[in-house]
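Pair request: fold both.
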Amino acid sequence: MAKVDLAAEAAGLTEFWSQRVVASANGDLFKVAKGVGSTTWHTHEDQDETFLVLSGRLTVQLRTGDVELLPGELLVVPRGTEHCPVAHEEARFLLVGPAVTSTAAGGKPDWSRDGGSPPAR
C-alpha cells in the first residue's frame, strides 16, 4: 500500500486531456487528468464516468445544460450520456471508472497530443 499525492500526479502530466492511472480498486481505475480548452462531444455506452475536481473549474457540457464543478465537487455522467468537458483555465481532476475504456480517445482533441496548447480564441 502506498499513498498517492493527486496534486503532484496531476502536475506531472505533459498533455492536456491525458489521463494517468494512479490507483485501482474493486475493478475501477482512479486516473488523474488535466484539461484546458474543450474536449470533443462523446459518450461512453458501457460505463459511467465520474469527475472529481482537484483544482481549477471544470464545466461538463450536457445536452440538457452545463454543470459547473469547483474543487472538491463531483459529478457522475451516466453511461450513454453525451458530454463535453471544458476548462476555460487549467483544471486538474480525478476520473473514476471501470478498468475498460469504451472510447479510445475519450473526447481528447487533436491539438492536445504531444503537449500541444489549445487554439487561440
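--- second member of the pair ---
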Amino acid sequence: MPAATREFLGHPIGLTYLFFTEMWERFSYYGMRALLVLYMTQYLLLDPILSSSVLGYSAIESFLTTLFGPLSVIGVSSQIYGLYTGLVYFTPFLGGLLADRYLGKTNAVYAGSILMAAGHFLMAFESLFLIALVFLIMGNGLFKPNLTAQVGSLYQPGDQRVDSAYTIYYMGVNLGAFFSPIVCGTLGQTVGWHYGFGAAGIGMLIGTLVYWRGSRHLPIENQRVIVATTEESSSNNWIRPLLVIGYLCFVNILFWGVFEQQGNALQVWADQKTDWAVLGFNIPSSWFQTFNPFFIIVFAPVLSRIWAWQRSRSSEPTSIVKMAIGCGWMAIAFLLMMYVADIAQGAEKLNVLWLAMVVLLFTIGELYLSPIGQAMVSRVAPARMVSMFMGVWFLSSFFGNYLAGFIGSYYDRMSNQNYFAIMVVMSVIAVVMFIAPRRYLAKWLNE
C-alpha cells in the first residue's frame, strides 16, 4: 500500500521526484535519439572505412541486405534506428518480470540508470557504437517499466487522481524531451557528435541522483518483491486484463509505427526540406525534436481540464474511445503532411511552420493515447504484477518502433505523398480496431 507522505499541489510528494527522475532520463534518451539518424547518415555510416571499424556493423549490414536487398545509407540507418528504438520498448517486459520476481522496482531502476549512463558515454567511441546501443537497450528495459509503475503505487486503489498523476508524469517525460534536442542536438551538430552524446550521459546521472534523493518519499514496497495474496494467485485475477491489454497493445503497434516517424522520416524531411533560418539564425534541424514535447507541455493541462469538465457532466470518453480519438488525430496530421509534400515539389525548402502544424496535430493524438494507456494499466494490473503489465504495454512501442524503421527504409524509394498516405491508412485502421469492440473491452476493464 502507498506510504503516508507529504503532498505537493494535491499529489504525494513522491510524484515530484518521479517526475524529475523521468524528466532527466528522457532528456538523455531523446537527446541521443535526436542525433542518432543524423549521426549515422552524415558521419558514421557515410564513410565505408569508418563504418567498417564499428564492431558488429558488417554482420548487421549483411543481415539487413539479405532480408531487404541493397540498402542506401539512409535505408541502413533507418533499420538500425528501428531496431534500437524497438528493442528499447521490448526489454521493459523482461525488466518488469525481473523486478516483480527478483529485484524489486527500486533496484531495477538503479541498475537501469547505471547501464544507460554507461551506454551514452560509450557513444564517444565509434568502434563501440553498437555495444553502446546494447547498454542503452538493457538499461531502459530495467528502468522504464519500474519507474512508471511507481506512479500508480503512490495512490490507494480507486483514487481518482491516478489519471491526473500520469498526465503530470507524462509532462515530465516531455519536459526532458523538449530541452534535450536544444542541448544535445546543438552540441552534437555544431560542436561535435560526442559532446551531444556526453551531455545525454550527464543527464542520466542527474536523474539517478534525483531518484536517490526522493527514495524516502516512495512506498517501501518498491524496494522488495511483493508476495501474491491468495486472491491475486488466482489466474482469473490477471488473465482477463492481460488479454485486453494485449489486444490494445496489438492495435497500438499501428499508432506507434506512425508516430515514431518523427524521429525517422520526418527528421530527414526536417533536415533536407525545411528552412531553419529564423530571425537571421540557422537553427540545427535536430531542434525539430522539440516540437512534440513543447506541445505536450502546453496542451496536456488543457486536455486534463477538458476531461475533468466532461467527467463532471458524465460525458468523458472511456479509455478505449480516447485511444481511438488519438489515432484519428494522427490520420489528420498525415493528411496535412501529404499536402505539404505536394507543395514541396515546387519549392526549395518550406517554412518550418508547416512541420509545426503537423506535429501539433499528432501530439494531440498522443495525449489521447499514451498517458491514458499507462493509467489504465496501473488500475487493472494486480499489485504484484504491475511492472510486468507495464512492460507488456511497452511491447506495443517495440513493434511500433521497429515498424517505423522498416517503413522508413522505403522513404527514398517512393514519392513522399505515397509514403505519408501509408501513415494515414495505418491510423484509420487503428481507429476501426479500437472502436469496433469498444463495448466488450470497456466491460472487461470495468469502465
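Observation on the second member. The chain has 17 helices and six strands.
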